Amino acid sequence: MKIKKISCLILISLAIGLSQPILFKNSQRLLAQNQTDCSQVTLAFDDGLESVYSLAAPALKAHGFPATAYVYTQAQNEEYDGYLDWTEVVSLQNNFGLEIGSHGYSHGNLTEISLAAAKNELERVKNDLISHNIKVESFASPFGAYNYQVLKYAAGLYASHRTAWSGLNNQPAEAYYLKAVAADDLSLDQIKGLVNQAKQTNGWLILYFHGLTEDPTVPKGYFYQFNDFQQILDYLKNQNSKVVTVSAGLSAVCPASTYGPNRVVNGDFEDNLNFNSAELTWYSPLDDQESIEKAPWGHSAEVVGDVSFVAGRNGNAVSFTDLSWSPDYIALPAYQVINPKQGAVVFWYQPNYDHTENVEARFFEADADCCEFEFNHDPAGFLYFKIEALKNNAIIVPVSNYSWHKGEWVKLEVRWHESDYMAVYVNDQQVGLLGRDNTGKIYGRLPDFTDHYLGSVLAIGSAGSRGKINGAMDDFMIFKSADYQLPSDAHQADFWTKNPKTEVKITNTSSGRTAQIIGGADQKMIATFGIPVQPGNTYELSAAFKVTGYSAGDASVWVAEFDQNYHYLGGQWLGGFTYDFIGRRYFRYTPNPNVNLAEIYFLTHENAKMTMNIDDVELKKIQQP
Ligand SMILES: [Zn+2]
Fold this sequence. Notes:
Helix content is 17%, strand content 34%. By secondary structure, the chain is an alpha+beta fold. It folds into 4 domains: 32 residues; 215 residues, Glycoside hydrolase/deacetylase (TIM Barrel, Alpha-Beta Barrel); 138 residues, Jelly Rolls (Sandwich), CATH 2.60.120; 178 residues, Jelly Rolls (Sandwich). The strands form 8 sheets. Strands 11-12-25-14-20-21-22-23 form an 8-stranded antiparallel sheet, with no helix packed on it. A hairpin with a 3-residue loop joins β20 and β21. The two termini are 36 Å apart. The structure holds zinc ion (ZN). It is found in: Secreted.
């Protein structure tokens, strides 16, 4: 490991023009290469199959290559047929120079069991390996399945985590989000191509196999043809590839990869942005809201004025505290269409004042030239819901006096069904009604809905000169049915609740708005909500970043994936920063099967010390490579 570090330092010296290199042990080989080549290749074997010992290890030894074998020790403890036994595992480390990594205890999916069970899996395999005098530093999640909590716990036990996200690693690599390419279905030529790509970009290729076979009738897949495997080894030898274990690869000191975006060293952020892309209309202020009636991109809201973020019910809420008449609001582009026949509007509100205080609050309004659609809390502390129609023909649903309590989250809801009723609920209790109740009893005269304009909601918050609120709003939803189903588990994604103190600053720049996250003790994030995506497509996410003052931790770009019912399915890590960076970065995103909605997160992890600005975010569908 030491030698490799030194080798790379030599290369850096050469690159910056120092003269005669001092020749270290294996520098002859390195000097024959392109002088900036710091690419690496890791060969990994998952699951601990017998053929790692019988076929792979001797061939690797003959080529002088190390490798990393990820085992799950239930197979050893229970002496599974076709798997390594304990003597062989120990021998792989002691006699063949392989690194032994953890692959969970039972190879169970760690996201499908309780967190306690997942912790047990992660600890048990580590203890098993340690008790056999095996040095275990590296972990690969079974099926590549992990979530935030599993990963956080694994990080306390292991120095790295290898995912199953396919691709080359940039260097410096992200220790807990290592990408890897499954060799299973790849041809020899495809693998050679990946080796070449790593070399050209200073990337790190982690290529993982499962079993090897000498039986030519076995189809490509879980067992790779041993003959082809040997040819891969020969190719790596011929190319002078640097072949390392995962733990050695992580400790390599390399110049930054050129794979992906180039670093931009000009310190002027905005000057380096690509103005041809969509300007940042920062689309996620109510960032943990969701709505069932979705249109592509239609749920993006635009922040206008002095709107900030405070702790919400889960994750963020938007806060309106400026009670001047200046227009501070969240605008819904293309307006949210409200079905005049029937529908519902639901949101949560946290007043920043008590019912004894004389404060007016209007929560939303429609087109100011036309009609009003508002929830109003008047100076006398009286709450009512009003839809104002054309020609000032308003429907006002009076609500029994509700006593606000400063800091308390209150669920507000309006449902309407043409010719039947219009009802207002506070905390799920009906507090106002026009029309008939479900026993047929009439409460007030319900005007003809067709006289009323229920077309859209323009803005939430202190809109224009008309509305103003003092408090926070969260989880705003519009439904096109009065009989809607609330997506009750929409907030179960672990990370929503990880940081109740998210603080993201939105500032104006010459190209629009920039979101700024200053890393701290807690995870901080800004996220979109459900973006419709389709499995089988590949998307490119691009954004301009300015990461400064980096000294610890990491920032990530993450996609959370949901099915059409907004059930959380898992996540994909797209990339991140553990260093200062200025420039635009591009990330490929391919939805997993059954994914219909994606949420994109820009986040700093706990204890990250850096400031990350994000601008000009764009997601677009691209052709499959
Ligand atoms: Zn596996």
